[in-house]
Each structure stands twice: as C-alpha cells, then as structure tokens.
Amino acid sequence: MILEILTPETKIFSGEVYGVQLPGVDGLFEVLDQHAPLVSALGKGAIKVLKSKDSKDKAATYSITGGFVEVLNNKVSVLAEGADASI
C-alpha cells in the first residue's frame, strides 16, 4: 500500500509500505494492506512505518503532534499538524 505523511510545511514520507501503526485519540491502531476505508483523528504520539513484513529492522518512526488519517483504495494519507523523524 502507499503511505504519505504530510504536514502544512512539507511531505515527511511517501512510499510503498507493508503497514503503519498510528496514535489514535483513543489508543494505537494499525493499518495493513487492503484495509477497509477509514477516516480517524490522530493524537500526539509516534507513527511506526512498517516497510517490510519480514524484517523488523525495516521500520521508521515519526513523532506527530496530532492530525488526521484517511485510508482509501489501498492508500493511507496522514495529515499531521507537525511531525519529525525520531528514534
């Protein structure tokens, strides 16, 4: 699936991924390939990008201050108020 992480200033990440873990306002949740359509608010926390199913070291983490996520047609769009690479 395709993941894009955007802020008002820049595009933080764009590419093909296996899955993504997101900080929802009520707790963490994960979106994997072929997920059902979804729109959700995001809270402050970490986004973990799972680049590969087979290797745990192929993950990247980004810290966000809140925002929204849309999942539609195997594309995940994260609109974050603020974000940076971390850990």
TrEMBL record:
Looking at the keywords, is Transferase present? no
Q: Where in the cell is it found?
A: Endomembrane system
Q: Name one GO cellular component term.
A: endomembrane system
Report if keyword Isomerase is assigned: no
Q: Name one GO molecular function term.
A: proton-transporting ATP synthase activity, rotational mechanism
Q: How is it placed in the membrane, per its record?
A: Peripheral membrane protein
Q: Ranges for the ATP synthase F1 complex delta/epsilon subunit N-terminal domain?
A: 2-83
* Protein origin, superkingdom: Bacteria
**Keyword field:** ATP synthesis, CF(1), Ion transport, Membrane, Transport
Q: What does this protein do?
A: Produces ATP from ADP in the presence of a proton gradient across the membrane.
By sequence similarity, the record places it as follows: Belongs to the ATPase epsilon chain family.
Its quaternary organisation is: F-type ATPases have 2 components, CF(1) - the catalytic core - and CF(0) - the membrane proton channel. CF(1) has five subunits: alpha(3), beta(3), gamma(1), delta(1), epsilon(1). CF(0) has three main subunits: a, b and c.
Q: What's the protein name?
A: ATP synthase F1 subunit epsilon
